[in-house]
Fold:
Amino acid sequence: MEHEYTNDETEAVFMAIRHEPNVFLYWRTMAQDFEFDTQELANEIKREINRNAPVVQVVYGDLLGAALGRVNWYEVADKFLGRLRDSDNALNSETIQ
Structure:
């Protein structure tokens, strides 16, 4: 079976956004209100997650930094925007019927 994500770190970030209702609503609002393209949204997600990452000492901080450095932020944004388009299309088709 082909892996759907570049790596586990990318999948973890996407799943955190997708499955945390407040986080999902925040990024949906940001994407819609500011009409971000994929790269702009990727940059914003990366900036926010890195800004909110906990400060930890020694090896744990290094591990966290390394993991966040491996995230494919463009892929996270692209999948997120794809989910928004899919949900918008589903809502529109239900409204039309």
